[in-house]
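Session log. Operator J.P. requested a structure for one protein chain; no other inputs attached. Running the standard single-chain path with token output.
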Amino acid sequence: MKKIYQTYHDAELLQCISENDEGAFSEIYRRYAAQMFITAFNILRRRAGAEDAVQDIFITLWKRRSGLQIDSLKAYLRQAVRYRALRMYKDEKKDDSFYARLAQATSDILQDDPVIFRNIQQLLQKIILTLPRDQQLIYRLHREQRLTYAEIAKRLDISVKTVEKKMSKSLKSIRPQLDKLLFLILAFTAGF
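Structure written below.
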């Protein structure tokens, strides 16, 4: 007998997915994915990012299906996707701010002393070489060739989400070393 999930209340659907019912999960997706996408898109202003935020929430919902304690599914999903999108937005802004500072400092050095700039570039290349090959490639495509995450995903035939995760891992590895390098650059340009 085929179940008609459209007639189920959210609480009934949650009970069904806790019992591994994929049809109930599909109904939850059908009911809420579009609303969640709009919420995420209004924060991120990027279609791919909004889609990734929604996908992350549904993946998490399915993974945690057996232990869910949700009073209002609609409110839970709305809040979860809002939080995820805000976190993605914050991560993007943090990267932008860091690289803006680095770009300004290196620009000053390039004008003042091209030899030091070349040495710094060589140090940066050594740092990048410590990354796994796939992360190196994605980092170089994004930072050196200025490709967007979507363009990189298409070129490498992977998802935008995979590009974001690999880039995030790369930056987490590179950032501490670059912070030290940036401090040296700033100290040098300030005349210390």
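Operator note: The two ends are 78 Å apart (CA to CA).
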